[in-house]
C-alpha cells in the first residue's frame, strides 16, 4: 500500500494553486474538471508525478467559496532543510507564518506553522535529510 495524496476542499482553486506553487514551491502536476458533478481538481507535489512522492489534491466545488474548518483537521507536514529560511521566504512571498520557527515544546526538533489561503495549517519540520532535495523551499 502507498500514501498517494491528501485532499483539501478549497474556496478558490487558482488562489490555492498559486500558494502551493509560488509560496511553498510545489509543482502543479495535473488538473481536471468534472462538469457533470461541477468540481475541479488540482494535484500538486514536490516530485514530477512519480508515485513515490505523496501529493496534495485540491478540490474546488463550483460556487463554493468557503468551508467550516471545524476542530478535527490538524496539519500537513513538509520537511525543509532550514525552517528559519523557509519562513523568511514564505513571508517574503506573502504567506502567513502563524508559529515562528523554533524547537517543538519539550523537544529539540525545529518546527514552524503556516496557513494556506483557506486556513489549513501546514507544518514545516526542519530535517537535515531534506537538504539538497532540489525541490521547493530550500
Ligand atoms: C481523483 C480522486 O483522487 C478523488 O478524490 S475523486 C473522489 C470524489 N471527489 C469528488 O466527488 C469531488 C467533489 C465532491 N463534491 C467533494 O467535495 O468531495 C469523491 O468521492 N469525493 C467524496 C469525498 O468524500 O471525498
Ligand atoms: Ni482523491
Topology:
Layout: E1 5-9, H1 13-23, E2 27-34, E3 39-45, E4 55-61, E5 76-80, H2 83-92, E6 96-103, E7 110-115, E8 121-126
Parallel strand pairs: 1-4, 5-8
Antiparallel strand pairs: 2-3, 3-4, 6-7, 7-8
This protein binds the ligand C[C@@H](O)C(=O)SC[C@H](NC(=O)CC[C@H](N)C(=O)O)C(=O)NCC(=O)O and nickel (II) ion.
Quick tags:
2,3-Dihydroxybiphenyl 1,2-Dioxygenase, domain 1; four-stranded mixed sheet; alpha/beta; 8 strands; binds the ligand C[C@@H](O)C(=O)SC[C@H](NC(=O)CC[C@H](N)C(=O)O)C(=O)NCC(=O)O; 138 residues; 2 helices
Characterization of the model:
There is one protein chain. The chain is of the alpha/beta class. It has two domains: 1-64, Roll (2,3-Dihydroxybiphenyl 1,2-Dioxygenase, domain 1), CATH 3.10.180; 75-129, 2,3-Dihydroxybiphenyl 1,2-Dioxygenase, domain 1, CATH 3.10.180.10. The protein has two helices and eight strands, in the order βαββββαβββ. The strands form two sheets. A four-stranded mixed beta sheet has the order 1-4-3-2, with helices on one face. A four-stranded mixed beta sheet has the order 5-8-7-6, with helices on one face. The longest helix is centred in the first third of the chain and has 11 residues, at 13-23.
Amino acid at each position: 500500500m502507498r500514501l498517494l495524496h491528501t485532499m483539501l476542499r478549497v474556496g478558490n482553486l487558482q488562489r490555492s494553486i498559486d500558494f502551493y506553487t509560488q509560496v511553498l514551491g510545489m509543482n502543479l502536476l495535473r488538473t481536471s474538471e468534472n462538469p457533470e458533478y461541477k468540481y475541479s481538481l488540482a494535484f500538486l507535489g514536490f516530485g514530477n508525478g512519480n508515485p513515490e512522492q505523496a501529493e496534495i489534491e485540491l478540490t474546488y466545488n463550483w460556487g463554493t467559496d468557503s468551508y467550516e474548518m471545524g476542530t478535527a483537521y490538524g496539519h500537513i507536514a513538509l520537511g525543509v532543510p532550514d525552517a528559519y529560511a523557509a519562513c523568511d521566504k514564505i513571508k517574503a512571498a506573502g504567506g502567513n507564518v502563524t508559529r515562528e520557527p523554533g524547537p517543538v515544546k519539550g523537544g529539540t526538533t525545529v518546527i514552524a506553522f503556516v496557513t494556506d489561503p483557506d486556513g489549513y495549517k501546514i507544518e514545516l519540520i526542519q530535517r537535515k535529510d531534506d537538504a539538497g532535495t532540489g525541490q521547493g523551499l530550500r
